[in-house]
Specification:
three-stranded antiparallel β-sheet; 2 domains; alpha/beta; disordered N terminus; about 260 residues; seven-stranded parallel β-sheet; globular; about 20% strand; Arc Repressor Mutant, subunit A; 15 strands; Rossmann fold
Length: about 260
């Protein structure tokens, strides 16, 4: 009995070491991929990730695990598939709150890109964005007007940042800003990884009549290092699960509407 337990422990230790190496290499790994790789059940992988998360080696997300970093975001290609169904549900809900003949800011992020995709069937919308992926997507609708901010293009995700981008964004005043964020602290502080990206998002928020913050449930457990503002600066929060109680109380106190996208 002891020998069997010891052998199982050694097997788990080797699996844990390889999981950590894979997360560092890829930025994000899914439960299903890990289960197939190690020929174990998804339940076993979830237990592994829970232990590794408790030890600070990885960060758990819905469907997998990623880097436990406050200074480096998950790779863009991994973020595109991370919580994809949740992002789509959030995006559909946001699109229902955007009337025709509106002007919008859309910033950098995979959730905001999902929103842009859901808006493609809308009519007569005007966009200003610092996200090349959003601009290219929206430009496929001939009834849209799309303005792309000028600045430095980040090759890792198509974001456009820098002072020239901020200056250009600041020349507009729009009906709705759709903004994403990388993390939300327990006190409602919005957090991100890149200072230049934060500066652009802050300019967007200052120049919008309404601010729609889009954030899936995993953002409430992530802690990037750059302060972007407060969740109370939003007009509405769109998410996929009920928000933590402390955050909900803060939103209620500042009359920020909460929209939860149902399954």
């Amino acid at each position: 009995m002891d020998a069997e337990g010891s052998g199982e422990s050694r097997s788990a230790e080797g699996r844990h070491a390889e999981i950590i190496a894979l997360v560092r290499q890829r930025g994000f790994v899914t439960n299903e991929d890990l289960a197939q790789r190690f020929q174990v059940t998804v339940q076993t992988i979830r237990r592994d990730l829970a232990q590794l998360s408790d030890a600070g080696h990885v960060s758990r997300f819905h469907g997998g695990a990623g880097l436990p970093s406050s200074v480096e975001n998950i790779d863009y290609s991994a973020r595109k598939v991370l919580n994809l169904n949740e992002k789509r549900r959030i995006a559909r809900l946001v699109a229902q709150h955007i009337p025709p003949h509106s002007s919008l800011f859309i910033n950098i992020g995979t959730t905001t890109e999902a929103v842009a995709r859901e808006l493609l069937n809308h009519k007569d919308l005007r966009f200003i964005t610092n996200n090349l992926n959003v601009a290219l997507l929206l430009a496929t609708n001939p009834g849209f007007s799309v303005v792309i901010a000028g600045g430095t293009v980040r090759n890792r995700d198509g974001g456009v940042v820098g002072q020239s981008a901020n200056d250009m964004i600041g020349q507009f005043r729009v009906d709705v800003a759709v903004i994403g964020i990388s993390g939300i602290d327990e006190d409602g502080t919005l957090l991100d990884y890149d200072y230049d990206e934060v500066r652009a998002a802050q300019t967007i928020v200052r120049n919008a009549r309404q601010v729609f913050l889009v954030a899936d449930h995993t953002k409430f457990s992530r802690r990037p290092m750059v302060r972007a503002g407060s969740i109370t600066s939003a007009s509405a929060l769109f998410t996929d699960q009920p928000v933590p109680e402390r955050i909900r109380a803060l939103l209620d106190a500042h009359d920020v509407k909460v929209h939860v996208a149902a399954d």
